[in-house]
Amino acid sequence: MIWAIGDLQGCYAPFERLLREIDFKPERDRLRLVGDLVNRGKDSLAVIEYLYEVRDSVDIVLGNHDISLLACYMGVKRCHRTLEALVRDKRMELWFEWLRRQPFIHLDDKLGYLTVHAGISPIFDLDRALEYNAILQKRLAADDASSWLEKMMAKDEPLFREDADELSRERYALGSFTRMRYCKRNGELEFKCKKAPGEKCEERDLLPWFDYPSAIKLGYKIVFGHWSTLGYFERDDIAALDSGCLWRGKLTAKRLDTNERVIVQIDCPEGIEPKG
Questions:
Q1: Other Cβ atoms closer than 10 A to 184
Q2: Residue 154: what pLDDT?
Q3: pLDDT single digits (tens) 187-225
């Protein structure tokens, strides 16, 4: 069985319960994680420790909080307090080298799925999305990754311009894969609004990236997380799996290796009280 699982954000106890609920056996099954493995939950260390242990049975894409962990370990930014135990662990160098070689997009050509943390820019075709996935992977695994990542995190890049410099185009792709939720009607990515579609944001005329009218069709169903206020949401072309476990919502698993819609969810009472 192949199970895609929504954002963990360091919530190890619910993750463990979900694995029991789906009867996960690493010698038989496979997990596909949509990113944001770590950060504000109670036990990011236990999440990484377990995933590394079963790494041969796990496909991971990196999310914005995973990037923050790598940046923190490289000294590019200050660590969130919930990551301190993980970063101080003597095994962190081993985990760091493993994590920074993970992709931003996972393509399952056999089953017809693309897995990514936040989404894929509606102006990217499949070739361009995979091209930038490879570029970002190579950059993050390089010896000068800390310098590159510092430049990536210096500012947002909401528009893709063919005549822009390499770093600007890479910054746009990274934002698309790990941070976007909405687009403006001119195609500009919007990174601030976290509300669900239909709720009022400060910025008007925003469209969910997957509803952009002239979006390029990729030919695969996109599985993603990142958008906890959207919750579990599925239609023929997308499956959103971040159902707010961190915020006392649910942790969601979707089985991929079947034509039937099989969803397993568990409650997450250990999470943080939602703001507002």
A1: 16
A2: 92
A3: 899 999 999 998 888 777 899 999 999 889 999 999 999
Q: Which residues contact 252 (CB under 8 A, 6 or more apart)?
A: 5, 6, 232, 241, 242, 243, 263, 264, 265
Pick the CATH number of 2-267 from 3.60.21.10, 3.90.70.10, 3.30.70.270, 3.10.20.30: 3.60.21.10
Three-class SS of residue 253?
strand
CB hemisphere CA count around 269 (13 angstroms) = 0
Flag whether the pTM goes above 0.85: yes
What is the reported pLDDT for 248? 95
Nearest to 217 by CA among 125, 151, 111: 125
What sign for the dihedral angle of Cα 104, 55, 228, 243? positive
